[in-house]
């Protein structure tokens, strides 16, 4: 929709063009003229056969375009647009002044050009108004406005008692904000095009908007995407001050004397606002990162008067900002015609519209909606979140975290000014000093301040990728963890960086092992070798990247990650903040280092003073004692204050409180040990089971699942390990039901409701564990996790599980940290197998009857590999969601099987086969039915896909994958063969004579070439009679003449023991345990 030229208002804001259709315009382009201009005539070009004005890339050349004609100032009383209102000879000067006075206070007055036939003294053969004639074609997805104001001039002298240029800017800001708010487009990006002193108006409205806290006026600044200056004054020159340059441009446009004191007042030549606007604009350019383009006049006419030549030169030099980021261009025209273009082929118009079209395109890219291929590429890059968005509490206490925003280094980083604008803000400190809370405070502040400006705030949490390893990372896990960070970072930049999308799509089209996901090595190589080594430009004006590195990450990992992020900051406009452990050994350039544990002393004292319940006279001494002993660790002070408050409520005196403070260890790990030391032997055993599950679970476990898991776990795991060794994990025992579970194990846990069990968890963990919700979830569905990452680090080190380990004589004192963690995994694996073996799941063993319409489930087929039907999938999801802990046991069975070091290198194939195949393949059928596939290849692929926690455990380094595949293939083959034979017997009514031959079908560990060693009575739940001893490399075993297996039943007689001869007995040399 375009309006007619005669509908343009001379004063106020006029909408010239709006795109038709339902598509929302990308930007609003607003044209602002200077003193002496007009919303039409400042941009309108008229001539008779004029040649194009060339763009001059360097200093003025000898080539000059013909100066555009302007109507001569024949009237003595004129508006700011320099057009005559009424000639003096008409005799209506008094009336015209009265009408003009009314018009000056009514911004809605209209100047209809067609109704003033005597205003122009020449007839135009060519009349081009490029904002209407050309710009809608060049930028069809932009809404175009023009704004006008006027100044009274009599006999080439401006009148007093009228608004100056800053008053006009205030009116403009109010009208622009009101109009956009009324149309509901206050957040739409803004592009200003200013001519001459109109640049002063634009700077002033941005300065005034910056003074606002929020609201529509503030939105004008936050929405500013780009500013174009056409011959606008920016700085002082060797010829004149900034005020002199502004006065010279106003004098040129108004055709008045430059030394007129009224002119100096109207243009603010001597006003402090002029310099404030210049300084504020430079700061805003850095802080809000909008785009700026300046155009200078390149035609310097050979005036006979040296003063006129000097004034033209001064105007040209003053239109250069002088910032290193500025890319100024020149247009071959004089000052009053630099904003007039006679055709779309004009070189000056080409330069201007190229910048405007690029600004519109950037905003369209920022709102980019991915297509199907881009969605698939993004899914291959980004992994779904595994747990809570914020893993640990981020409560902010009043008066804390404010010290950061007063630091000069932070302000220069935040405002992108000075030498720190491309540096990384590195907040580092000891564990528990409050880095996560401070980063949360910063994130909230940035969202509150930059959210209306459509800034991008990217949060990335680095994962150590191996929750059982502490405290350092192996090289493989380190690379995987780097890939996790880069995946998250690239995924969040994917939609706002067109060049990144193009590069990732090209990488996505390349062939790889898993077409549905990028490999970790691909991601790390792409990020470190390609993306961060090139200039990065995104349409988003400000991008903040907040990276949280876990405290237990090693220095090599932190150093490599910081090095890559430093290069990213140097080659982009991103503001990057990183939090990590202190790591004093790391020294990198381009870093703003803030030692958190040194700076937060005042925050700790403020917290203790507000929360300590002591009321004695020397209370301040107690507060100072806590603050000094905390050593900058906020979490230590928080825990100790809670302990002291509990003692004060029980009547503790000041002397007892101060004595307790002296006894409490000053370090965080020592405090945890001191707290766990208050538990008795029985409570420590229960706490050990509880912490085993929370610390070593594959994901934060839900409260209902944890209740079942604790009941399933044998509290005497150390005794079982001493007796059976690693094979304790596969000694499932006899099946029982849910009803029997409460009486069999951990019956002392009498909690019947989630709230009661939650209180038990808080008590046994002495407050180190808590339940946190993903959203609006009930208590039973909330996930149990440590109160802080330092608790996890404490337990994954020797100090955690060691202080809870039983002190009985049967527990070896030589157990290492790895041994303690491995025993915990054996215990967890045994609990998972015990749960799958319960009598409540007997229906999963029954093969559903096939019908002509409904096909049998896939695990009933021997050779046909069909994916589960949607109805089967729905039933499987219904079953796993109906029983607590069932989904976890099915999904993470292999994880806990391969996590122990011994099983990773020496997978007990025979024991595993016998456990899963016992009782007619009960455990195998249940597990594969709930898993969704019985095919060994699909099972392995499911657990080795990108993002799976078991992928690293199946590395060829360990050899567990090959051995596990052998077991799975034989289980699948024998199970399917047994079911097939049973179906054939029912169909033919025959009984097979030699059921033992099924043991020789297929390739796998049951073939004569690869025999299985016997393991007596393991599947019967009686435990091992012999004491476990580690397998020694090179040990020789003797095969028996016959290996007895309990084959699955296919009718009567199938459950009996049938001998299978494996060949002549003889020695077998074993390199690794089979």
From TrEMBL:
Residue stretches of biased makeup (Low complexity): 51-63
InterPro entries in the cross-refs: AB_hydrolase_fold (IPR029058), NPHP3-like_N (IPR056884)
Record key words, sorted: Repeat
UniProt KW Ribosomal protein keyword: no
Domain Nephrocystin 3-like N-terminal, chain residue ranges per copy: 399-580
Residue span of region Disordered: 48-83
Source superkingdom: Eukaryota
Name under which the protein is recorded: Nephrocystin 3-like N-terminal domain-containing protein
Organism phylogeny: Eukaryota, Fungi, Dikarya, Ascomycota, Pezizomycotina
């Amino acid at each position: 929709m375009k309006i007619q030229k005669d509908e343009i208002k001379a004063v106020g804001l006029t909408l010239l063009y709006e795109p038709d259709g339902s598509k929302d315009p990308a930007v609003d382009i607003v044209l602002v003229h200077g003193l002496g201009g007009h919303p039409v005539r400042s941009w309108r070009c008229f001539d008779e056969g004029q040649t194009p004005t060339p763009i001059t890339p360097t200093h003025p050349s000898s080539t000059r375009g013909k100066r555009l004609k302007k109507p001569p100032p024949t009237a003595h009383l004129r508006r700011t647009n320099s057009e005559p209102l009424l000639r003096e000879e008409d005799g209506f000067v008094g009336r015209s002044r009265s009408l003009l006075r009314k018009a000056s206070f009514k911004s809605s007055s209209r100047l209809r050009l067609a109704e003033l036939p005597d205003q122009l003294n020449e007839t135009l053969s060519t009349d081009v108004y490029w904002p209407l004639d050309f710009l809608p074609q060049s930028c069809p997805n932009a809404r175009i406005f023009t704004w006008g104001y006027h100044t009274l001039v009599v006999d080439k002298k401006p009148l007093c008692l009228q608004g100056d240029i800053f008053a006009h800017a205030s009116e403009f800001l109010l009208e622009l904000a009101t109009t956009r708010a009324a149309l509901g487009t206050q957040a739409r990006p803004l592009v200003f095009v200013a001519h001459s002193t109109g640049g002063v108006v634009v700077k002033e409205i941005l300065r005034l908007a910056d003074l606002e806290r929020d609201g529509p006026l503030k939105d004008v600044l936050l929405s500013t995407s780009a500013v174009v200056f056409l011959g606008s004054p920016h700085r002082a020159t060797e010829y004149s001050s900034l005020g002199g340059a502004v006065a010279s441009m106003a004098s040129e446009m108004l055709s008045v004397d430059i030394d007129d004191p009224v002119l100096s007042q109207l243009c603010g030549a001597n006003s402090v606002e002029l310099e404030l606007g210049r300084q504020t604009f430079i700061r805003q350019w850095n802080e809000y990162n909008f785009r700026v383009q300046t155009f200078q006049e390149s035609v310097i006419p050979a005036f006979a008067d040296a003063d006129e030549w000097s004034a033209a030169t001064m105007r040209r030099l003053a239109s250069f900002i002088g910032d290193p980021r500025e890319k100024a261009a020149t247009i071959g025209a004089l000052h009053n015609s630099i904003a007039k273009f006679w055709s779309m082929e004009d070189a000056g118009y080409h330069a201007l519209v190229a910048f405007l079209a690029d600004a519109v395109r950037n905003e369209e890219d920022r709102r980019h909606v991915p297509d199907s291929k881009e969605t698939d590429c993004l899914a291959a890059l980004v992994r779904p979140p595994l747990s809570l968005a914020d893993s640990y509490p981020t409560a902010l206490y009043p008066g804390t975290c404010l010290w950061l925003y007063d630091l000069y280094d932070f302000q220069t980083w935040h405002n992108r000014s000075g030498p720190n604008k491309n540096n990384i803000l590195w907040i580092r400190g000891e564990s528990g000093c409050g880095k996560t809370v401070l980063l949360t405070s910063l994130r909230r502040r940035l969202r509150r301040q930059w959210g209306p400006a459509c800034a991008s705030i990217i949060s990335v949490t680095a994962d150590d990728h191996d929750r059982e390893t502490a405290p350092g990372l192996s090289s493989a896990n380190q690379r995987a963890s780097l890939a996790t960070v880069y995946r998250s970072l690239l995924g969040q930049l994917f939609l706002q960086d067109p060049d990144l999308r193009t590069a990732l799509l090209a990488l996505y089209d390349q062939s790889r092992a898993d077409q549905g996901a990028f490999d970790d090595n691909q991601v790390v190589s792409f990020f470190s070798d390609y993306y961060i080594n090139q200039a990065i430009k995104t349409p988003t004006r400000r991008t903040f990247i907040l990276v949280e590195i876990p405290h237990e990450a090693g220095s090599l990992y932190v150093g490599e990650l910081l090095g890559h992020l430093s290069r990213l900051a140097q080659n982009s406009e991103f503001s990057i903040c990183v939090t990590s452990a202190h790591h004093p050994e790391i020294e990198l350039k381009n870093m703003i280092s803030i030692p958190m544990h040194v700076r937060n002393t005042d925050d700790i004292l403020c917290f203790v003073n507000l929360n300590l319940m002591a009321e004695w006279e020397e209370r301040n001494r107690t507060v100072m004692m806590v603050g000094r002993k905390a050593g900058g660790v906020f979490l230590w002070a928080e825990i100790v204050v809670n302990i002291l408050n509990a003692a004060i409520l029980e009547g503790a005196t000041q002397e007892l409180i101060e004595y307790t403070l002296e006894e409490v260890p000053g370090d965080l790990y020592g405090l945890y040990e001191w707290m766990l030391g208050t538990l008795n032997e029985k409570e420590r055993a229960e706490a050990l089971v509880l912490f085993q599950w929370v610390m070593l679970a594959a994901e934060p476990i839900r409260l209902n699942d944890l209740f079942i898991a604790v009941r399933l776990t044998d509290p005497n795991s150390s005794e079982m390990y001493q007796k059976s060794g690693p094979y304790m994990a596969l000694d499932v025992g006899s099946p029982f039901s849910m009803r029997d579970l409460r009486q069999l194990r951990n019956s002392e846990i009498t909690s019947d409701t989630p709230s009661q069990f939650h209180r038990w968890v808080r008590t046994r963990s002495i407050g180190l564990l808590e339940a946190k919700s993903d959203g609006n979830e009930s208590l039973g569905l909330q996930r149990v996790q440590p109160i802080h990452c330092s608790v996890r680090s404490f337990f994954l080190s020797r100090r955690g599980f060691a202080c809870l380990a039983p002190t009985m004589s049967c527990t070896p004192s030589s157990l290492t940290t790895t041994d303690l963690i491995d025993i915990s995994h054996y215990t967890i694996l045994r609990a998972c197998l015990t749960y799958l073996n319960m009598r409540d799941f007997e229906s999963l063993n029954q093969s559903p009857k096939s019908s002509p319409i409904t096909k049998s489930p896939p695990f009933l087929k021997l050779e046909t590999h069909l994916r589960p039907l949607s109805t089967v999938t729905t039933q499987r999801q219904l079953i796993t969601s109906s029983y607590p802990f069932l989904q976890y046991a099915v999904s993470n069975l292999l994880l806990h099987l391969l996590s122990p070091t011994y099983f990773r290198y020496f997978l007990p194939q025979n024991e595993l086969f016998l456990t899963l195949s016992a009782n007619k393949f009960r455990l195998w059928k249940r597990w594969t039915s709930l898993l969704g596939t019985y095919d060994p290849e699909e099972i392995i692929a499911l657990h080795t896909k990108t993002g799976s926690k078991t992928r690293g455990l199946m590395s060829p380094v360990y050899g567990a994958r090959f051995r596990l595949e052998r077991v799975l293939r034989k289980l699948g083959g024998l199970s399917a063969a047994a079911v097939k034979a049973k179906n054939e017997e029912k169909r033919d009514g025959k009984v097979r004579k030699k059921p033992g031959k099924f043991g020789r079908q297929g390739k796998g560990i049951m073939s004569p070439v690869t025999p299985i060693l016997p393991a007596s009575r393991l599947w019967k739940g009686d435990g091992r009679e012999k004491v476990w001893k580690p397998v020694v490399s090179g040990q020789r075993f003797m095969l028996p003449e016959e290996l007895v297996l309990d084959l699955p039943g296919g009718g009567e007689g199938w459950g009996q023991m049938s001998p299978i001869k494996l060949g002549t007995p003889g020695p077998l040399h074993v390199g690794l345990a089979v």
